[in-house]
Design goal:
The structure holds three protein chains of three kinds.
Chain A: H1 5-23, H2 38-65, H3 69-100, H4 109-129, H5 134-162, H6 183-218
Chain B: H1 2-15, H2 17-38, H3 47-66, H4 68-71, H5 75-84, H6 87-116, H7 124-150, H8 155-183, H9 191-216
Helix pairs in contact in B: 1-6, 2-3, 2-6, 3-6, 3-8, 6-7, 6-9, 7-8, 7-9, 8-9
Chain C: H1 2-21, H2 28-32, H3 36-69
The chains are: A mainly alpha, B mainly alpha, C mainly alpha.
Keywords (chain C): Membrane, Signal, Transmembrane, Transmembrane helix
Pfam family, one (chain C): CcmD_alt
Protein name (chain C): CcmD family protein
């Protein structure tokens, strides 16, 4: 019960976000109309993906410094759940883009960046699938994880700021000012990011525990 | 040590004439396919299409020719190197050698494109600087990834799958600069992109240098 | 006290008038007739079901881990 407090916080935040996100007053903007609310549900997926991938890279580095198999399991599972978040983020983004920008794939740099991030981690899973030796698999995939993430950094954090993006916060501004993310929206948006991140951590912890049990049983 | 390894790479490469001929022919066929499919010369293509075709040809020929930097080598040879040189020296010599190879390929590609398709570039100096930068980036990323892929089962497919997402950021920057070079825009307009490309190169080379020992050990 | 009440009521009315005066079209009718609560209810049920499922998985893993330690 005591170690579970963060799960309860995540659940409570998630319920608050869904209630508030659907019913509280949202800014009235042209074109977007009622779909501003999608911000509460679409953007946290993207944030969750990046955060989970970062933790995956962190465990990859940890594994290379000290090769314990636990770090490898964690690295893979963070990447797994991050990919799930990324796919959900892309699908919700396409649905939203279809109604506000006119087509599901609009060649937006942030959209492309997210797609490439997914490609990197899909390649990562292909790499893991094609090496038989477990220890070698862990080491090589950790190396690729770190290298590919570093190569992705300009793609996600620099290029969208150089080019005109249809997303808010382009042209050197990382914030959401263009969306008029006023205090009302912040009040729901930040808890939404935190809530989905906590839920992501929870799913990862379940998967890691399952994998560790499985490893013990096969030994 | 690095110089000795570099010499060994070059002499080995020059001895295997068929490999060089193969790479050259690959580049030529790719360019020729572009030429035929567009039935160029009669109706010349616009600058954007030229840049897309050029970078596609360069990307494919560079990935295919640099893939062999570790994949082609025999198991026994790797153990022999392992006893002779440090992994850092090996990766650095590979990166330098591959940079030269990639640059040679890019320049040959440019020459072939000029001959067959035409050369709409207005600012040639900027374009060649871009080619040098992308060669460094391609070679340091591909050397490391070739090392990874050589340890796996289906190396050749894996090489393409692993390298394309990593190379996209370099390619995106290069295409943006190419656009400026094609339009002959002032050099100052592309400083941002050139700086970015340089930063990506530094990150890629530093990471390849740091991470390669972990691959080499296995 | 009375004056304060009227003042707050008046300012509230003006606030309502202000939001309605905005020209951008929103799903206001849905909110007005309360049908939005149906949507909120459905989404909440799905969400709670998902979370209950996660909790059940968590419990199952706890039990397995205990069994393994024995």
């Amino acid at each position: 019960m005591k170690q579970n407090w963060w799960k309860y916080i995540g659940v409570l935040l998630l319920i608050y976000v869904h209630l508030g996100g659907l019913m509280l007053e949202a800014p009235r903007l042209n074109i977007l109309n009622e779909t501003v609310r999608a911000l509460y549900f679409h953007v946290p997926m993207w944030f969750g993906m990046v955060l989970l991938y970062m933790i995956s890279v962190f465990y990859a580095i940890k594994f290379l410094r000290n090769p314990l198999s636990d770090a490898d399991v964690k690295s893979v599972e963070y990447a797994h759940v991050g990919t799930a978040f990324g796919i959900l983020g892309i699908l919700t983004g396409m649905l939203w883009a279809n109604y506000t920008w006119g087509s599901p794939w609009h060649g937006d740099p942030k959209q492309n960046g997210a797609a490439i991030a997914l490609l990197v981690y899909l390649a990562y899973f292909v790499l893991r699938g094609s090496i038989e030796n477990d220890e070698q698999k862990a080491r090589l995939s950790a190396v690729y994880n770190i290298f590919a993430f570093a190569a992705m950094i300009p793609l996600i954090f620099i290029i969208p700021r150089l080019t005109d993006s249809m997303h808010p916060g382009n042209g050197g501004n990382p914030g959401f000012n263009a969306y008029d993310l006023d205090s009302r929206m912040r009040l729901i948006f930040y808890p939404a990011v935190a809530a989905w991140f906590l839920i992501g951590l929870w799913i990862v912890s379940l998967r890691v525990r399952y994998r560790i049990l499985q490893n013990h049983l096969t030994e | 040590m690095i110089v000795a390894l570099l010499k060994k790479e070059i002499t080995l490469e020059l001895r295997k004439k068929s490999v060089i001929a193969g790479i050259g022919l690959y580049l030529f066929s790719l360019t020729f396919i572009c030429y035929i499919t567009f039935a160029l010369r009669q109706n010349s293509i616009n600058a954007a299409t030229w840049s897309a075709l050029f970078w596609l040809v360069i990307l494919f020929s560079v990935v295919n020719s640099l893939a062999k930097s570790f994949i082609g080598e025999k198991k026994g040879l790797a153990i022999y190197y392992y006893s002779l040189a440090s992994p850092q020296a090996i990766i650095l010599s590979k990166i330098i050698y591959n940079t030269l190879l990639a640059l040679l390929l890019s320049l040959a590609g440019l020459l072939l494109f000029t001959l067959l398709i035409g050369n709409p570039i207005q600012d040639l100096r900027l374009f060649i600087v871009t080619l040098i930068f992308t060669s460094i980036g391609f070679s340091s990323s591909l050397s490391l990834i070739s090392g990874i892929a050589s340890k796996a089962n289906n190396s050749n497919i894996l090489m393409a799958v692993l390298s394309f997402p990593v190379l996209i950021s370099i390619l995106l920057m290069a295409i943006r600069i190419t656009k400026n070079a094609l339009d002959g825009i002032d050099l100052a307009a592309s400083y941002d992109e050139l700086l970015n490309l340089l930063a990506i190169n530094c990150i890629a080379t530093a990471l390849a240098y740091l991470l390669f020992p972990y691959i080499w050990r296995s | 006290m009375k004056r304060f009440l009227t003042l707050t009521i008046l300012s509230l009315c003006s606030l309502v008038g202000y939001t309605q005066a905005a020209e951008v079209e929103m799903a206001d009718t849905m909110r007005a007739n309360g049908k939005i609560y149906v949507v909120v209810g459905i989404i909440l049920i799905v969400l709670l079901g998902f979370i209950a499922y996660l909790f059940m998985l968590d419990r199952k893993l706890n039990r397995l881990e205990k069994e393994y330690k024995k």
